[in-house]
Amino acid sequence: MADQARTQENSDASLAPATGTGNATGEGSRFPPRGVPVIHGINRIGLWSLYIKEVRRFLKVQTQTIWAPAVTTLLFLVIFTVALGRTGREVLGVPFATFVAPGLIVMGMMQNAFANSSFSLLAGKIQGTIIDLLMPPLSEGELMAGIVMAAVTRAIMVGCTVALAMSLWPGVSLGVEHPWVVAWFGLMGAVLLALLGLLASIWAEKFDHNAAVTNFVIAPLSLLSGTFYVIDNLAPAFQAISRLNPFFYVISGFRFGFLGESDIGDTNTAVLGAAAGLGVLNLLLVVIVYKVLKSGWKLKD
C-alpha cells in the first residue's frame, strides 16, 4: 500500500507542471505567467487569417464583386465613346477612348476598394458578429492592415479585369509609358479608398449610412475628378476646386503612366509631387484610422 501511495504521489507531482498548477510565478509550467504576452511583434498567423477570410468573402460572390464592376465600367466606356468619340475627337493627342480608359480603370479600382472595406466592420456590427473581429489577438494595426490589404486585392483584381475587357474594345490602346507610375497611383488610390471605407464602416450604423457616403461623397468625387475630361476646359474657379480633390491626382497620375501626359503636368517633377502628396495623405489617414480603432469608438460601446 505504501508503494502504491508513493507511486500516486510521484504521478501527481509529475503532472502538476504540465497542467499549469505550479507556483504563482509560472515557474516549472509550460504556460507563461498571467499578463505576459504570448505573441511578440506582429501576429503573422492572425493577420494572414484575417486577410484570407476577407478575400474569400468577396471571392465567394465574385460575379457581384469582380465581374459586375468590370461590366459597369465597360458600359461607361461604350456610352461615352459613342456619345463623344465618334467624330474622331482627340484629347491630349490620343483618341477619346484611349484617353478615358485609364481613368475608368482606376475609378473602378477605387470604388471597389471602398465597397470592400466599408462592408467588413459594418456587416459585423449589424449582424452582431463584430466580436469575431475584436476578440482575436489582433492589434488595431493588424486589424486595419488585414482589411485594407483585402480591399486592395479586390481593387487590383477589378482593375485587371476592366483593363482586359477594355483592351478588346475597338479604338482603345493601353500601352504603358511609365509602369512605376501606374503601379504607384493605382496602389495609392486603392489604399486611399480602402482607408476611407474603413472609416465609413466604423461610423455607419446601418447600410443606409454607408450608401449615403457612397452616393453623396465617393461617386461625385470620382466622376468630377477629370475621368471624362481635362480640367483645362473648366473655368478657373472650378479648376481650383478640382485640384483640391485627391481623386483628381489619382486619376490623372494613373493616366500619365499610360499616356505620358495628364492634367497635373507633363514633367516628372509634377508627377513626383502628386505621388508624394498621395503618399503623405495615406499616411495621415493610417494614423487617423488607427487612433479611431484604438479608441473603440462605435465598436466597443
From TrEMBL:
Pfam families according to UniProt: ABC2_membrane (PF01061)
- Where is each ABC transmembrane type-2 domain found? 60-296
Keyword annotations from UniProtKB, A to Z = Cell membrane, Membrane, Transmembrane, Transmembrane helix, Transport
Subcellular localization, as worded in the UniProt entry: Cell inner membrane; Membrane
Q: Region (Disordered) spans which residues?
A: 1-32
What is the membrane topology here? Multi-pass membrane protein
Ranges of compositional bias, category Polar residues: 1-13
Q: Could you tell me which InterPro entries the record lists for this protein?
A: ABC-2_transport_permease (IPR052522), ABC2_TM (IPR013525), ABC2_TM_bact-type (IPR047817), ABC_2_transport (IPR000412)
- Which PROSITE patterns did the record assign? ABC_TM2
Name the domain of life this protein comes from: Bacteria
User: What is one GO cellular-component annotation here?
Assistant: ATP-binding cassette (ABC) transporter complex
* Molecular function as annotated in GO: ABC-type transporter activity
From the record, give the transmembrane residue ranges.
66-85, 143-169, 181-204, 211-231, 270-293
Q: Which family does it belong to?
A: Belongs to the ABC-2 integral membrane protein family.
PANTHER family registered for this protein in UniProt: INNER MEMBRANE TRANSPORT PERMEASE YADH-RELATED (PTHR43332), TRANSPORT PERMEASE PROTEIN (PTHR43332:SF1)
Name of this chain's protein: Transport permease protein
